[in-house]
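Blinded run. Sample ID left blank on purpose so nobody reads anything into the name before looking at the predicted structure. Input follows.
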Amino acid sequence: MNAITDPHLAPRWATSALLTIDVQRDFLSEAPYGVLPPDAPPLKAGLLLAGEPQPVGEREVALFKPRWGAFYRTRLEELLRGWGVDTLVAHR
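Blinded prediction complete.
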């Protein structure tokens, strides 16, 4: 049995979310928040720093990650559970 056929490890694409972490571009970019789509509304730094997610598209948010490690003390889990997400695909 492999990860694709094991029911405990197989991804559930219908209830999955893509998590993009673009630290390098954010640090090297002239503009802040380098990963936003071109038509995204402007972000409010005060709300982000307070831990509030900022909508940038349909079921897409920007979320401030205060540490370079995990998403400790963020609302990521709350958001994903609220959307019914049970599979996370991480990309960096």
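Unblinding after everyone has recorded impressions. The CA atoms of residues 37 and 63 lie 14 Å apart.
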